[in-house]
Design goal:
Number of strands: 11
Low-confidence stretches: 61-72
Shape: globular
Radius of gyration: 20 Å
Mean pLDDT: 91
Strand order of the largest sheet: 1-5-6-7-8-9-10-11
CATH class: Alpha Beta
Order of helices and strands: EHEEEHEHEHEHEHHHEHHEHEHH
Number of helices: 13
Number of domains: 1
Strand content: 15-25%
Helix content: 25-40%
Structural class: alpha/beta
Largest sheet: 8 strands, parallel
Length: 374
């Protein structure tokens, strides 16, 4: 089987256990996200700023070199050098890389603690990007204070970050993305040129909510997995409807791991509302909503058979493939089979656009991926 090279619009770092204890005062480090797994390995308790949030652990079959089960990570996941062994074998060139435990930062409710934690995780993550431009690391932005968010955006942009990770919804109790509160942040992101990176399933939680468990009962696992995709769609819909891209046409946003065929549907639905219910629409936009989605919004997918059709049949060019490395629902161990299943028989220009082209458009500083190997 020939090797298809692809960039990944969705990957993750695995933070070291001592990330916060080695970089923050003990009083702060004790309140940062950390994971404790039950002895049977079936449940996990995530401790965040005095909260204890329980969730059922995903089960997988990855093993390390000694045949032992590897929990939620591939062999090179937490080593910037060994990671390339995995990526090169899989045919993955560059990655947009999100945090893992750092995603729980959105559940912190102390602005000063959140700001300190974000600085710590960003300083650590940037070492990956400094090691190689193939790692496009997302900077985690503290969202409890708009002024603090703006300050961190400018700091990480000055460091050399190219993307800013935002949870799909702001922290609990804070105005949502379509409110004027966030205008200074959108301005800072536009000024610095950072790509806005939303990752699905990152809604803030507290001890009264169960991470990823929106519904219980028959079919709950399938319902909940599907439900996680909607947060990213809502986030960019709020940005479009409130005029963020109208005011800042250079802004780009990507929704990672949430599929792609939702894009044309949301575009059509927004246009219908804008035309048929125009008397109620505020603010008025300079263009149809669909134009902002098709130009300013990108999406990555893993296995979705319909996603390539979003480009080839529906006209949305801003579609990226993503591996979700090293997470269990990703493609590690079968990336080439996945890519061939998706792209064999697809027009060369469509295949190139989805595997490498859209990624290169967002992150032109990344060296080109190797040519596909016969």
């Amino acid at each position: 089987m020939s090797k298809i090279w692809a960039n990944s619009g969705d990957s993750h770092l695995v933070e070291p256990a001592d990330l916060f204890t080695s970089s923050l005062p003990a009083s702060l480090a004790a309140r940062m996200p950390r994971s404790e797994k039950d002895a049977d390995g079936q449940w996990e308790t995530v401790h965040v700023d005095g909260q204890a949030i329980r969730r059922k652990m995903p089960r997988g079959t990855l093993t390390d070199a000694d045949g032992r089960t590897v929990d939620d990570r591939a062999p090179g996941a937490n080593d910037m050098k060994l990671r390339f062994v995995d990526l090169d074998a899989e045919g993955i060139w560059a990655e947009l890389v999100y945090p893992s435990i750092g995603i729980w930062m959105s559940s912190i409710q102390d602005p000063d603690l959140l700001a300190a934690g974000c600085r710590a995780i960003n300083d650590w993550a940037f070492e990956y990007q400094r090691f190689s431009p193939r790692y496009v690391c997302t900077a985690t932005i503290p969202l409890l204070s708009v002024d603090t968010a703006v300050a961190e955006i400018h700091r990480v942009a000055d460091m050399g970050f190219k993307a800013a990770y935002l949870s799909v919804a702001p922290p609990l109790g804070v105005d949502d993305w379509h409110y004027d509160l966030w205008e200074p942040m959108w301005s800072a992101l536009a000024e610095t040129g950072l790509v806005i990176a939303f990752h699905i399933g990152t809604e803030p939680h507290d001890a009264t909510t169960s991470h990823g468990a929106y519904f219980r009962g028959p079919g709950g696992a399938l319902i909940n997995y599907t439900e996680t995709t909607y947060g990213g769609q809502r986030a960019v819909t709020k940005m479009i409807a409130s005029g963020v891209f109208d005011r800042h046409p250079s802004l780009k946003a990507i929704v990672s791991e949430g599929g792609a065929t939702w894009g044309p549907f949301v575009a059509d639905r927004l246009d219908e509302a804008y035309r048929q219910h125009g008397s109620a629409v505020r603010p008025k936009l300079g263009r149809l909503p669909s134009e902002y989605l098709y130009e300013n919004v990108y999406a990555s997918f893993q296995h979705d058979r319909s996603a390539v059709a979003a480009v080839s049949a529906m006209g949305w060019q801003n579609v990226l493939w993503g591996s979700d490395y090293p997470h269990l629902e990703g493609t590690f161990g079968h990336t080439q089979e996945t890519l061939h299943g998706l792209f064999d028989g697809v027009a060369p220009e469509v295949r190139k656009r989805v595997t490498v082209g859209a990624f290169a458009e967002l992150f032109p500083h990344v060296p080109p991926a190797p040519a596909d190997e016969a």
